[in-house]
Amino acid sequence: MAGKRSKSQRERDRKNISELYLQGFTQMQIKSRLKISQSTVSRDLRVMQRYWQMSAIANMDQRKRIELAKIDNLEREYWQSWLTSGGSAGVTKTVETITSDGSEKAKEGGKSSTKIWEETGDVRYLSGVQWCINKRCEILGINAPRKIAPTDPTGKKPYQTTDDIINELIHIFKNRE
User: In DSSP terms, which residues pair with 93 in a beta bridge?
Assistant: First the structure.
């Protein structure tokens, strides 16, 4: 095809090129089918691949925002449930004052003690809050990296590198001599 393509022709070509490419056609096969140059196919594919990449990043960011909003909502529900269950984060109340002789007021020389009652709610809700915080940190990628030691498929023995295997075989053959 000679000459410069119009905007609508370029968009139509890119649509057709991407459909054929995603069906597994090579650039040469696409060129033959659409009767356009191979360089046009290559150039349009580069444009489409950049678009797909940017679209995937935008979709991932949008997906993260949606999941974070769900977690924020869930955390608010956990906090409300914690408060409703009697949780008040360590507020203490004086229940009564008793003396060693049992009277309400301490007499001269008598010892007094105060009983303190601490309100506590259902701690399962605080576990839910902690889960929300952990999940949010995971999604945002702010957790410290974890070192994971490689193991064999059973997960019980350390993974052997090629050097480890070669050294083991050398040791076996040396002991046979």
Answer: 117
